[in-house]
Amino acid sequence: MNFYLMPHPPIIIPAIGKGEELKLYKTTLACNQIAEEISKLKPQTIIIITPHGPMFSDAICILDDEKIEGDLSQFQCHDVKMSLTFDRELNELILNLSQNRNIPVVSVDQHLLKMYHRRFQLDHGVVVPLYFINEQYRDYQLVHITYAPLKDRQLYEFGMVLQEAVKQLDRQVVMIASGDLSHKLKEANMKYGEEYDRQFLNHLKKGELLELFELDKEVVYQVAECGLRSMKIMSGAMDGGKYEGNVLAYQCPFGVGYGTVKFNYLGVGIKGLKYIEKKPKIKAVSILQKENPYVYVARKALEDYFQQTKTLLTQEDLPSEMFVKRQGVFVSLKKQGQLRGCIGTIFPTTDCVATEIVRNAIAAATQDPRFMPVEEEELTELKVSVDVLTEPISCSKEMLNPKKYGVVVSCGMKKGVLLPDLEGIETVEEQLSIACRKAGIGETESYEIERFEVIRYQEGD
């Protein structure tokens, strides 16, 4: 197989760009270069992995029917149209091999999509790359794959399935990972986008495909890319080979990074699946070694919980104050910048801070009623923070400061707690309103106010 990464900006099409496409001149040249190369290869089938087809949260989607059509009318362009047939034999084999490996893959035709009120059509993640190819070569069938937010191991192993299916049928095949890089290059946090794009392309250039699985997941979330999972699947399809990426173009005139890459085969390489499987355990050990004592205890409690072992804490490993003081503790878990669980105690319920952290860390992962319990595979994606509380004191509304003080509101048996310095809460009124809502205290009810301070420990400190 031959492998390519292609972007899919609709504005690169002259009928849509209306002159703006000239800002992507280098990308246009790169896409034409790939199209010319594919025309010489004369593949029987093009496999394209897109982020913009029918996406399911728990299964990779393969479109399958007699034929499929597509255009760019959603971008006010009615001149670009295409009609393609599927390589149904290859589709079926991919599906069967995936089932044998317990990889969740679903085959979808137009009748099934109609039940979900979705149109059976080519998305722009496919149409834009094929626009260039079709200008030079059309004698191919299509395998249309929409990735899903599955575990890294499943994405990589699905790529291995694609490799095996192509070998079994002895097809001449080209694979395209369709995807753009950072979508946040013109925003305040553009430094993350620039760094992400640099790292991503550098890994491809050096052939460090397994390093794609090491990219910081929170940074990946922040930059809003749409090509990483396409590349993770294609990395699996390259399993056992050594490749280097020839970056034909990288441009970002509109605040989105567009990378165009062809991969050159250099010879036999490593088998990567075992590394992907071991990676979470290796990373978990690395995280534990780096953290401050308070976060270390929370993280270790989670690791031990999933290993079904008791967390043993000694004063040789931790500050003595963690075994002497009794204080309330909140443990918060975030995944890709979003809250994944938070449980805490205003007043201590155990004999010391260390055991309070252990108790609440496990509860945050397993007992927060707002979320499904955390799974072991998520541990390396979580950011853990620990808030150690001072004893609450009675106060008036005027004595509050949402950046400095947490708040406790109570009315009879109803009680609500809100930690200080939470994102999006700027005023005392907002702080009290949310705390009352959590407690179930109505707007007309009177309530008592207490405030407390916290010492916050979080990963990366």
TrEMBL record:
GO terms for molecular function: ferrous iron binding; oxidoreductase activity, acting on single donors with incorporation of molecular oxygen, incorporation of two atoms of oxygen. Coiled coil: none annotated. InterPro entries: AMMECR1 (IPR023473), AMMECR1_dom_sf (IPR036071), AMMECR1_domain (IPR002733), AMMECR1_N (IPR027485), AmmeMemoSam_A (IPR027623), Xdiol_dOase_suB (IPR004183). SUPFAM superfamilies: AMMECR1-like, LigB-like. It comes from the Bacteria. It holds the Pfam family AMMECR1. This is AmmeMemoRadiSam system protein A. The lineage of its organism: Bacteria, Bacillati, Bacillota, Erysipelotrichia, Erysipelotrichales.
